[in-house]
Design goal:
The protein is mostly helical. The protein has one domain: Winged helix-like DNA-binding domain superfamily/Winged helix DNA-binding domain (Arc Repressor Mutant, subunit A), CATH 1.10.10. Helix content is about 70%, strand content about 10%. It is built from 6 helices and 3 strands; from the N terminus they run H-H-E-H-H-E-E-H-H. Helix 2 packs across helix 5 and helix 3 crosses helix 4. The protein is globular.
Length: about 140
Amino acid sequence: MFEKCIYFNTNALARQINKIWDDAFKPFGLSPAHAYVLRVVLDQPGISMKQIAEELELAPSTVTRFVDSLINKGFLKRSSDSDDKRGIHISATQQARKIHKKLEKTGQELFNKMNNIIGKQAFSELVTGLRDTRKQIS
């Protein structure tokens, strides 16, 4: 009935992917979205909120909520720019740096798992197709 419906099929796939990603990041006490924000900050210390939003294609208000939550969990900290007091930079705490390699390993394991389930070529084409389609629609 829904074999031609992009809405149904992408949402069904998203639910399956969310379950796998939720399980993978649960040991860190993080949702996948929080883990991705944390990974971006770990890779780009001193990043701005605007840059995080652009990198992850999220609304600024969503990034603020995620960053606030990660600050409350002790993974991130805010600091003001010494030259421009309006400039806020986000960086990782020691607690976050301690799990950095494990977070990256989890990301690689998820990549490998999808390659094994879907097949390397099909997975690469799927991700490329999704990225291209996302860009075309926006």
